[in-house]
Amino acid sequence: MQRIHRTIENAYKVLDGGVLSREEALELDRQVSGAGLLDLISLANKVKDKYVPEISACSILNAKSGVCSQNCKFCAQSAHYQTGIDTYPLVAREQALAALEKVHASGVRSFGYVTSGYGYLKPDREFEYILETLDAMEARFPEMKLCVSLGVLSEQTAKLLSEHHCGRYNINLQTAPGKYAELVADTHGIQQKIDTVKYLQAFGVEICCGGIFGLGESSVDRIDLALAVRELDVEGIPLNVLMAIPGTPLEKLPVMEPAEVAKSFALFRLLNPAKMIKFAGGRETVMKDFQGLLMLAGVNALMTGGYLTTRGRSVAEDEAFIGRLKHFSSDSRKLP
Ligand code: SF4
Prior knowledge:
about 40% helix; 9-stranded parallel β-sheet; globular; alpha/beta; 12 helices
């Protein structure tokens, strides 16, 4: 018990601008459990309150669904698996604008335009259509932040996106770089994703880059993912908990224990103290009763109004939820 306390005590240096090393994160992962986990969550919440106190929300449109050539093992949209989801080609511009209008009316100011598929290495007709759609969105609702997620890009397509109101780009590493081929997919490599991040950063686009917990990875893999996104210096880190989709190779994986998720969320916060960390997929559907506790483990953003292929809570329900979470803001830096 004494040792656990010292390990967490050492991590309080993050509140004073200290940087947690990989070894220190691994030590916390090894040593903290049971009641000590609440101490770790409390510290993560304090760090969140110090560096990124506001809780934000975003909503997304699945602008093109399914029939993807890639074989990501968790994904309902891969053409390699029979998942029975709704599939459709790129939605028409007016449909995308209508979705944006609905999100705008709900009060959410961040809108994600997401397509299934490998990505766009050349500015083909579909990519040009997307660029024109982004222009139309910006013209209609200039106050909205447009986030785009189209998969892998080349330097050329990254530059074009940066010139067409892409305020932020989402591309997830999903898991530790060394485990990508084993746990995620072998039809593409993680390096192509890292290159995409670097192209976009060079053109001034903010990056949202995180992953999924519960793919069968270890807690060490999750720490290595947290370090990989720290290394990339991204603005936002969306974290999902696997919603096992029937028909995918991961359909029988057990749901992660909420305590394990909480520990990894807290370690992500301590390793990335000033970044936006978003609880994305799995919040309501997988973590159910524990979503409130998990939001206090260093998370400062959530996705609301549903996900790519599954439903979520309404924006109004989440607004009330965020309002109640604010009562847990910490105003003390004392040790527990
Ligand atoms: S995660 Fe993206 S690239 Fe992978 S199968 Fe799903 S849609 Fe395709």
